[in-house]
Design brief:
- The longest helix has 24 residues.
- It is built from 12 helices and 8 strands.
- The chain is globular and about 45 Å long.
- Strands 3-2-1-6-7-8 form a 6-stranded parallel sheet, sandwiched between helices.
């Protein structure tokens, strides 16, 4: 049984350094992979930009879950695998302070289901999955916020843990500049199933935004970040303006204490369903039910 590092021990310090290094590598890789277009032609504001989280900020539910569900429907893996994936991601989302073992497992398994697949094949599937499962889940209010930045001549990027290829598709469909997402290792045009650095989560998001800002000459004090989760505080505190969108309880409290604007596009039953950790909400609100129905139908056939 592996020995866990003791608090304050040399192993624990090394673990923290390794985590910071992976976040830096992930951020740099994501910024390098981001497609970049110039600011809108009308009165461009080249040094200001906006960064939007995706899950429960731009979209109802978790984009990575819908991506996995779409791949499950295409027989990339079983419904049981999908259930296991949902539980793992729910723990990741809910815990906030994940253990080293949990984080290692998530890193190792996050994109294992595309290992060996051609990149072009997954990109094509991503286009279809967006149309089937994601397009109708975009928050119109958040999309309007993004459009305001574009109208002001500023560029707008999504920043998300979902694979950068899928993140780019979502950004392009919404008419945004581009996306910063989790970068998967590719060899000879096929995914290895391994990540480059870290999941685009927490500090890795801030690293990606920082790297992109340096490359594009952005003034972060003039930029705005949007998110629903306290997990994104590293990104939210990096920019001059932070906006809490459909915030979780912790982020709402932080936003109030710091005087940040809060935008909540949830009402009534939607708030009850979606106002819980995103991946768990996606599962409860029909993800696993849909998978179970699909499995029963396949068994009947």
């Amino acid at each position: 049984m592996p020995r866990l590092p003791r608090r304050g021990s040399r192993d624990a310090r090394r673990s923290r350094v390794d985590e910071e290094t992976r976040a830096h590598v992930a951020g740099a890789a994501s910024a390098a992979a981001a497609e970049v277009t110039g600011p809108p032609a009308a009165e461009p504001d080249a040094t200001a930009a906006a960064f939007f989280d995706v899950d429960n900020t731009m979209m109802m539910g978790a984009s990575l879950f819908w991506f996995a569900r779409g791949l499950a429907a295409r027989k990339y893996f079983s419904t049981r695998d999908l259930s296991r994936f949902v539980w793992q991601q729910a723990k990741f989302r809910i815990a906030g302070n994940e253990s080293a073992d949990d984080m290692h497992t998530i890193r190792e398994n996050a994109l294992a289901f595309v290992a060996g697949r051609p990149v072009d094949e997954i990109v094509q599937a991503s286009e279809e999955i967006y149309d089937e499962l994601m397009a109708d889940r975009i928050w119109s209010g958040t999309r309007a916020l993004a459009q305001r930045h574009l109208a002001a001549g500023q560029r707008v990027w999504l920043v998300t843990a979902t694979p950068v290829e899928l993140a780019g598709i979502i950004a392009h469909r919404l008419g945004l500049t581009g996306a910063l997402g989790t970068v998967a290792e590719v060899v000879d045009g096929r995914y290895t199933g391994r990540l480059v650095g870290e999941l685009m989560h927490g500090e890795a998001k801030a690293e990606a935004v920082r790297a992109l800002a340096e490359r594009e000459g952005l003034d972060l004090s003039r930029c705005t970040a949007y998110s629903d989760s306290a997990n994104d505080l590293p990104m939210l505190t990096l920019t001059g303006t932070a906006v809490a969108v459909n915030p979780d309880t912790e982020l709402r409290a932080v936003a109030r204490s710091r005087g940040w604007v809060v935008r909540d596009f949830r009402t009534g039953r939607k708030a009850a369903k979606i106002g819980v950790p995103t991946v768990a909400a996606a599962a409860v609100s029909g993800g696993l039910v849909g998978g179970a129905v699909a499995l029963r139908r396949r068994n009947k056939l």
